[in-house]
## 1
Amino acid sequence: MMKIAIDGPAGAGKSTLARLLAQKMSFVYIDTGAMYRALTLRAQQKDIDLQDELSLCEMANSINIYFESQGGVQLVFCDGEDITEAIRSPEVNSNVSIVAAHPKVREIMVQKQKNMAQCNNVIMDGRDIGEQVLPDAEFKFFLTADLNERAKRRALEMERQGYYSDINDIEINLAKRDQMDADRKVGALKILEESIIVDTSQFGVDEVLAHILSIIGEE
């Protein structure tokens, strides 16, 4: 079984690239960010304090998060409910890093992710995949892009989903998330010694996809 890890900050294009790569290679795509978003959404719906690690752990242990591909689109489900669109709301965007920063929450979620990867060829994206989730991955990519470009991409993504936000506010939010992700005690965002760094700032999705396929040897 082959494992491919894709790490990087929010808005660098990880999810888009991972989905396309999985389709091209007929691999299973596991969106770990969506899993933390699902937990954040459920906690908000149930008015759980996002600083309450114990309550978040209890919820993380009890909820069932899974993915299904329908018509070429990957959907995210939580306890049988399609939450694909709901987890991309500004409220979830602003709070997911708080939830993901709890060490004990990450332990639970990382184990869920490892279980998903046991019996499949997988492509997994997130913040700590190469180090914590798939340390034995054959390829470990780190996607990055400059902050303004990432903010533009996030603004377009939110607009397509019916949300509108000032790009300066998005930049501020992304910068805060970058700092929180880098400062985590467990599962921090970092470039590993074996990471293959890909800067997507000036390149389209197709160009980045072709470049990564050439590295893997699947061009």
Note: Residues 3-212 form a domain with the Rossmann fold fold (CATH 3.40.50.300).
## 2
Amino acid sequence: MLQTLVAFATMSAFLFLVAAPRAHADERDKCRQRIEKAEAKLNAAVAKHGANSPEARDRWHELRAEREHCWTAYHQWWDGRDRRWRTDPDWDHDDRWPEHH
């Protein structure tokens, strides 16, 4: 009985260690997807309504919220233009958006 319990505990620990990084990677990928979607919406709003429009401003705030969410969770945020994870919270310097955001 004790041997079975030890074997079960060992197997459970192993599965946790294997599954935890995978779950983290899946969640981080969801962050990337949400940021890419928000970036696409911002680009569409700018193209359709102009960079200073209320629609573009709303999409900019949504993009910023997604970036902040990823930053809070992973201390990284996805930069869709450079197609890489960034490790500095400097998304306010996005040159697609006018100075007044």
Note: The two ends are 65 Å apart (CA to CA).
## 3
Amino acid sequence: MAYKVLNNISVKDTSSSKLAAIKTDMLVLIINKGTKNDSSFKELDAISTKYLSKTIASHLKDAGSSIILPKMNGIAAENILLVKGYEKDTPMHKWLSMYASIAKKGNQLGAKDLAVMCGDVSPNDKDEFWLIEMVAKTIESNVYIFSETKNKTVKKPSVKKLTIITSGLSSANLSKAKLAAKKGYAIGEGVNTAKYLGDLPANHCTPKIIEKKVKAMTKDFPKLKVKSFNEKDMEKLGMGSFLSVSRGSIEPARMMVIEYKGAKPSEKPIALVGKGVTFDTGGVSIKPSPAMDEMKWDMCGAATVFGVMSTLARMNANINVVGVMACAENMCSSTATKPGDVVTSMSGQTIEILNTDAEGRLILADALTYVGKYKPSYVIDMATLTGAVVIALGRHASGVMANDQYLADMIVSAGEESGDRAWQLPLWDEHQSCTKTRYADLANIGGGREAGTIHAAAFLSKFTNDYKWAHIDIAATASYSTPVKGGTGRPVPLISELLLNKKLK
């Protein structure tokens, strides 16, 4: 079940054709200092009898500002969107926001297709191919509109085609540009796949429903191999920690393992593990009612795995990856796990559950133990794990903690490259004291209000001694509450960048 919005993304070089002849519902021109010297723009401006340049001078004062012009004689485009572009030293998040806004304007206008001339200015240290990839990724992931559970008020994306316009590229560079657009398109599709799964209401996205969607994914991508584990299977594996979370729910837990083999069989896989709590009441340690509806996004770690695996398959990536989606519903009932209960994890370590709302780490503990069987080169888990990370980093960056500095560095680097930023927090030996308890090998909470995000990672580290591992806390970045509630699809861009560019050696 891949979820892409656009039917097609293409790259067109105007060296062999005229900008005025491009038939599109919305022609987007990014205006920067070099635009007036671009031959394609000069020709278009001449046809408009200098109306374009006059409008730019009078209306586009601030970077990021825009104006839509209706159809003009001699120009095939139905509408022209003029956007004042940013300069090289402008922070990347503004570039991403600009193209996200363009995608949304396309839907608002009811445009079926967009043609975008990006111009020749890119952020510092980024080239035109990075720009093309970013445009494809950002447009694809922002024409997305969730409509699955609407009926009479349904509104679907109108935009179905994107043409990225370049100028003066050699044959070799045009091929590179097309590959960059393909990569961006695939990552954007992965982002939408993750957003779609996260945006589904919890009653439309139980562990069993996710299992069906993951199995259906193999129809789109036969290279993906899916294994599914039910509660009896997990009981045989000794996953007492994982199963303690689903005890209070009528919905049974599921663990899906997706294997993608694109490299030599001898190459060790990279393992991705995603927390997939399809709804989190907190269990017996019940959450307060306000904003509890947002707990449907507590499965965005698993959704990220789902999105990344679709991206890898779409790109036929030269890499081996194992993705684990660990899914359960955390409910409060007479059968639910109680504070003070002790369970045995797959690793053999016993855990005293002092807070049933610290359930994500209980699921991940067993999933992280399980992936050790693949002898992975690296393991990365992604989870909406702690509210504390929102306090620590705000909504702009995911939190990273690791037992391997090179892995942490590469994750942060991939975040900077993709615009899906992450920031490393320490994971020192001093933090390990938070897991101590008199009644089991480990406690699932500790340390009071201090360093909640780090203490959660300290607990997980007890299950990752056999390999190089990083934990990414995405509680602040995987969804947003304002101005409109919705999933973001993060950190699909970061993880895709990390894997597709073979940053991990």
Note: Residues 4 and 189 are 5 Å apart (CA to CA).
